[in-house]
Amino acid sequence: MTEERNDQPSWWLVDRRAAHAAERRARRQERSDRRAERKVERKSAAPREQLTPERIADAAIALVDAEGVDGLTVRGLAQALGVGTMTLYWYVENKDEVLDLVGDRLLAGVVVPAGSDDWHETARSLAIAVRTELLRHARAVPVIVSRGSFGPNGLRLLEASIGMLRAAGFSVDDATDAYFTISNYVTGTCVFETSSASVSGDIAVDREAYVRQASQYISLLPPDRFPNILAAAPRLFGSDRDARFMFGLDCLLDGLARRLGGGPVRA
Q1: HSE-CB of 179 using CA atoms within 13 angstroms
Q2: Are residues 99 and 127 in the same domain?
Q3: Domain check: are 162 and 217 in the same one?
Q4: Helix 95-105 and helix 152-168, axial crossing angle in degrees, nearest 10
């Protein structure tokens, strides 16, 4: 008797394959449903704020204010902006470009005085405005000092400053050198005034405590050896920083006025 051949799979294989097929269909449907839900969510969600140089710079300044320049990284900045690191790299090539944005953004709030024929007073107001803006972000001051600014804000102030000095009668060379002299005085003063803020950890100095300790130390010096230091002690440690800044600025501007051959000279 010939055995009947059965090429059909066993019933349990048929049932298992059918179950797997049903499971695959269910997974495909679930994925399709999730895609449809995400599509609806994307359409209904508020549009993501577009990245701009100003927005990137503001976020970077906030990080520098909190962590210092060394604490600023492209990855950390991307997280602060709510974007992926590679997305941020579409806008900035590296940290150096971020720092360039920061340096220029620090000057965004500086308003150039308009409508004044008194170059001395205009230069004075402009210097005060730059110092005020820089001191708002003490830990970012090293950025503007080390890199300068040739972005739109930096160029705006440079053009206005040299133009103001040339209109006052300075030659191009003297106007340029006068600009650098004033700028270096302002930024140098800011570096000194923010020196403890630009470092971190145990190196940072409580300036008020330092002044108290230094003043006490000076008072103990022998008067026969240090009569001038003891005489100047109240001024050394008691002078208001704004007043000291204004004294130096007015001396500088008065010197430029004399070089020009006239103009206001303050007592």
Answers
A1: 20
A2: no
A3: yes
A4: 40
Does 4 reside within a domain? no
At 16, give phi and psi (nearest 5°).
Answer: -65, -40
- Note the pTM of the prediction, 2 decimals: 0.73
Domain count, the chain: 2
Of 266, 216, 254, the C-alpha closest to 236 is 216
| 136 falls within a domain | yes
Share of the chain above pLDDT 90, in %: 55
- 3-state SS of the chain: helix, strand, coil percent to 5? 70, 0, 30
**Sign of torsion, CA 255 257 260 261?**
negative
Q: Which of 81, 206, 188, 104 lies closest to 153, judged by CA?
A: 104
Domain range enclosing 215: 119-260
Q: What contacts 251, CB < 8 A, 6 or more positions away?
A: none
